[in-house]
Write a structure and sequence with these properties.
about 475 residues, six-stranded mixed beta sheet
Length: about 475
Amino acid sequence: MSGGGSESTPERSGLRAALGGLTTRGRSFLAAGLAAAVCSYLLGQADLLRVGLLLAALPLVCVLALHRTRYRVAGGRTLSPARVPAAAEARVQLRIENVSRLPTGVLMLQDRVPYVLGPRPRFVLDRVEAGGAREVSYRVRSDLRGRYPLGPLQLRLSDPFGMCELTRSFSTSDTLTVVPRTEPLPPVRPTGETSGYGDGRQRSLALAGEDDIIPRGYRHGDDLRRVHWRSTARHGELMVRREEQPRQARCTVLLDTRRTAHRGAGPDSAFEWAVAGAASTAVHLLERGLSVRLLTDTGTSVPGPDGTGGAGSADTAGLLLDTLANVTHSEEEGLLAAYDVLRGGDEGLLIAFFGELDEEQATVAGRMRQRSGAAVAFVLDGDAWTQGIGGIRFPGPHPRIPVAGPLRILREAGWTALPVAPGASLPDLWRATDRAGTGPEQPVRSGPPAGPATVPKPAGRAAERSAAGGGA
């Protein structure tokens, strides 16, 4: 188990199972002994009968001795680490300990692993003394994200003559979590992202000034340095300044998992690119102190609207990565479930990873922008992702939808929308949002941007929100 826990001692098999463990050599000896006994009866040769009985008795004695062997062997498994990104290796260490008073014979170990992690590891251990232990290790690797069981560990016992082999399994197993690969993103500040720190205090200062902060009565335990002497003189009792708690900026990462919106399968498919992009974005924003939640087209959110960043960003990032390790295609036909969640309140920054969008779904996605401080969309170019090696086009279950139409609808709704082609680099696309004039530290350009996508200049209040965005 992870962390070095011990597995239970394998259960002993029955006598019938022990007879079933006869090897080819043992079965051959038994058959030869029976044949010799029959021939001795037919030929009347007593010496041949003795030979036949010896040949037949040897494998049976080995089976009985192996069945009655009271080996008590404990096993443990340690994963290092228990959560790895795709295409990375994890080390599995096995520990076998002989807790009986008798030394063991030759032990053969086999750990069960899924085929995507590689072949099943097998080890041969020499005699283990009473109270002794042996340690072996192997490595596993997967290009596909997911949760993979390891174990149970199998222990194979054999007699010195190789007549019989018994397999005994331990009862516990462990799980290796393969999460999407994440890429470091440049420190770009997407439009409309509120800083979330001190905004309420700045508004109070602008209205009343530093000395006119609304005070409250003194409470036991308040810091005396917060005493507001002017209000104390006015009210005749101790009054302290009311300190507003900083509001943490929120961000929602929307992942489109509709089966009809993605084509292909495997680690290089469009869907896997979107999952890895969502993971990289969520981890990046958590590291910069934002409150991040993951939302899918089904309306399911993790960890929820109150997910925290900052000090708890490591735990939240682990929760999000574990969720993305298991995310699969949904059977939803549209994005209405996600829209219903987003229209319930101000979600701050919204970053979406869309699959193929038709005009209807692009319109629904455009309305998600209404309550968001900013919205950045990465739209998969389905027409480009259907191109195979050498320009061969693979047919899909649905007609191809040009990406230009959905991009235009999203941009008219105020989104910063960028197309995603096969082999696209998420850091470059992330940086392109700033080059397109969407950062609060740069004015929105009126002409075509230098990045790979043309983003129209937001007008009216949308432009004011872009100029007021905070840093990500």
